[in-house]
Amino acid sequence: MIHARRICVTAVAVLAALAGSPGLAQAEQPYTSEPSSTTDDNPLPPGWRIDGEGGARELVWRTPKAVPMGDARVEFRTGDRLLGAPKPARDGRTFRLALGGTRTEQLTDLQVTAAGRRLDAAADDTHGSGPRVARMPAQAPANGVDPGRPGPYRTVTGEYDLDPVRLPGFDTPVEMTAEVVAPKGATGSRPLALFLHGRHGTCYKPGSEDDVTGDWPCADGYKPIPSHLGYLRDQRLLASQGYVTVSISANGINAQDWEAEDAGAQARSSLVRQHLARWADWTARRSSAPAVVREAPEADLSRVLLVGHSRGGEGVNRAAMDSLYPPPAAEDGYRGPVRWKVRGTVLIGPTVFGQNPVADVPSVTLLPGCDGDVSDLQGENFVDGTRGISRGAALHSAVYMVGANHNYFNSEWTPGEAVAPAGDDFWTDPEEEPDPVCAPGAATRLTAAQQHKAGATYIAAAARLFVAGDDRVRPLLDGSGRRAPSADPARVLTHAVGGRRSGGFLPDGGAKVTGARLCSAIDPDPAVACLDPETPGSSPHFAWWETEQETGRSAVDLKWSAPGTAARITPAEPLSLRGSQKLALRLFVPPNTTGTEFDVSVTDSSNRRVTLGSVRVDGLPGSASTASYWAQELRVPLSAATRAGLDLRHVESLELTPRSQSGRAWLMDAWGWAPGTSAVEAAALPRVDVGRTLVKEGDSGTRTYRVPVEISGHGSGQVRVYVLDPDSGRTESRLVTVRPGSDAIDVPVEVKGDTAYGYDVEHDIAVKAVHHAVVGKHRGGLTVENDDPEPVITLSPVTDRVTEGETLTWRLSVDAPVAVDIWQPVRVLPVAEGAELSTKDVDPQWLMDWSGGVPDPERPLSDADLWVWLHIPPGSTGVDFVVPVVRDQVAEPTESMRLALTDDNAEPLPDEPVLTGTVLDTP
């Protein structure tokens, strides 16, 4: 007799058994178990099972090869539906996800992804992704000012190591260690640039080639991986130009962020602000500062630049948010005053799990074209996601760097430079054809040195624009098509929103489209989605979020087979382009295509139509493994409209007329553009944070609870609330107006008590800002915990002594009906004495169905891989395991087989009986 503490099965067996089962039996009747197999209707990858203890049922995936610890969040999905982010085991090969109320029959089309990249399958390029030889984009003209050139100052370098800090939700304190590089001999106070690395291994064993762990603190014989030292080149460049720089260590967060619902964004923000608070203290009391800080010029905390790599990018974005709009105190690891001002952020290959950028803090997002970690380039949302949120004055730039990978912006993640084991994150199977864009040695792929130099140049460009206020470097960042020679030979393309842009032809907000298709970034219907899921490669603009369908993320999909048919976009209200010099379009075409041309026209409210000019665009270098469907900024002057007397204060529509013979393109938006940089003042906005409440289901009655949501800040704004149904996986959304202190986001959850054993169920919501609001913790909900006792499972004989031609039968039983599926493995063991049944003594089809084997060569049944998962469906109390024995003409002694309950590793359970079945020869 055992308790059902091990409820597990391979996903293949689960789904095949469900497909083949005859339905639920009555509670008092045994259920006949059927063999597992995959079918053409239900092809599933190997390596899955369901496991768990009590109500904490888990979906488990195990891969033959370890998944390196990286920044992209590993996610389990069923098709387009996100199941959740699993917990990684220490071996890097096993991942576990609590299933809550997800039913077994819902686990179809299981996938493992990280930033949209399949981890359990190779990239599919069967549909072709264009020419195999990638074309290098043309080199842009040089900008007048090159921020990549070193400045006049020598530098001083040193470390500080303070007492660790405790952060909410983390058991182990987090280190306060940092590397300072500062200008030597600079006078006056100097701006501060703070760097935060991303999620990487935390400890390594010196002398080993691959012994890296995610532990913290490090075990004996291991040393910390100094990820924070990987930006020394960037720091030295900035310090030579007069900036005080500090790069902080976050290994303690990396080791624990799998426990955080927001993947550690709030913890990283807290750590950043803890360091800034220390710098504020040291500015006030220089004598209390560490030696290297005393050697450096005084830091001017009214001019702070935050630089974050990968999850560090999302972390510094949250720190900028928290500095303007304080988070809930219970969630925050820093509760002191804000004595600094963040002037801008640089986000390098960032994650943005919350899709919650800070609209009123200028930003530059570096998107590596060969990112093998955050491969969907989801950081594009730090640009796209700011549209319409606030005043639009802050410039948000995306910098697409062809041929750059994720890791090589950090020298401690770069092979040959790092003290710990390191590798190229854009990994390809040596047995597969090399990627034409990103394989080392490809014409479009950068070396580590080239990439790091280019990255340092664009970090310095952001510092010079946002902190120093030098508008001469803006053309490097805002889509003006200029290059910094210091970044050569890298090909870098940029686009932007905000700044001195006005108007805005946006596909969302009631725009009407004719001659083209208004499409949705995220939708399970290929006829609605902007990019067909079978398309090789992906678009950063359409990166997945939390739901299988989203409202308010649209684009205009143009497809034509002959030139001359115009696509017209008409916004809900006429737009003003007054004061603009040019119309700037963000538009992309399929990778590796060339020569796509459009005429661009506008019409005013008096129906005057003017063709402004034409644009030409080539696709980026791309493959099935890259996110190269990325919008380039194309501009046409408005001078023709002015000469024709068009009323630029009331522009009614925009037309794009293809001049190419055929093609495809997607328009993200179009804006009036003028040179210069706008002054930025953060608006007073309401902030939304979603919490989580745990409740017991109870034994009877119905109780109503509400998902905890805190609305703080000032003013009113709009957010979109997605309610995720735990049964179907579908979502419902609604637009909500929020005000501080209100209960505007009211999501009731009815909990029905019962005495039947079940699983924990999560009733979740996800929130995204729409207008005049910010969102901190974007996801949370109500978890209903099962509080009923686990069923007691027994294995007992039904007919365990038979003659050839009959069937051996055992029954797996539970002591009471349950509300969920029960899976329990049994295994055929060698007999202790006498003759054992062989593979030729049982029905050959039965043997094939249960073990995948055939009778020949004849072998004992215990050598036939008979480890069987038996399924007791909800409402049933048992299942029969039947072994059909064949009748033959061979005189044989009495034979037997032994059957035992096992754990999920096929080991017989201790203190449980091993049952024997006996077969007599035919008289």
Structural commentary:
The chain is mainly beta and 923 residues long. The chain is built from 10 helices and 52 strands. The strands form 11 sheets. It has a 9-stranded mixed sheet with strand order 11-12-17-13-18-19-20-21-22, with helices on both faces. A hairpin with a 4-residue loop joins strand 29 and strand 30. Helix 2 crosses helix 8 and helix 4 (265-284) packs across helix 6 (311-324). The longest helix has 20 residues, at 265-284.
How many beta-strand elements?
52
Task: Give the distance, in angstroms, between the N- and C-terminal Cα atoms.
Answer: 36 Å
Q: What structural category do the secondary elements indicate? A: mainly beta
Could you name the ranges where pLDDT drops below 50 across 5 or more consecutive residues? 1-32, 36-44, 126-132
How would a crystallographer describe the biggest sheet?
9 strands, mixed
Strand content: 25-35%
Q: Please give the count of helices.
A: 10
Task: Kindly report the average pLDDT value.
Answer: 90
Q: Largest sheet, order of strands side by side?
A: 11-12-17-13-18-19-20-21-22
Helix content: 10-25%
User: Over the alpha carbons, how many angstroms does the gyration radius reach?
Assistant: 31 Å
Shape: globular
Write the layout of secondary structure elements.
Layout (H helix, E strand, L loop, with lengths): L1 E2 L7 H10 L9 E3 L15 E6 L2 E7 L11 E5 L2 E4 L2 E2 L5 E5 L11 E5 L2 E2 L35 E12 L8 E11 L5 E7 L6 E2 L7 E2 L9 E2 L7 H9 L3 E5 L2 H4 L10 H20 L6 H5 L3 E11 L1 H14 L17 E7 L14 E6 L12 H4 L11 E6 L46 H20 L24 E6 L4 E4 L6 E3 L2 E4 L33 E7 L6 E4 L11 E7 L7 E9 L4 E9 L14 E6 L1 H5 L7 E8 L4 E11 L12 E5 L1 E5 L5 E5 L2 E5 L3 E8 L6 E8 L9 E5 L8 E11 L2 E2 L3 E7 L6 E8 L1 E3 L3 E8 L7 E8 L5 E2 L7 H8 L15 E6 L5 E7 L10 E7 L13 E6 L3
Helix pairs in contact: 2-8, 4-6
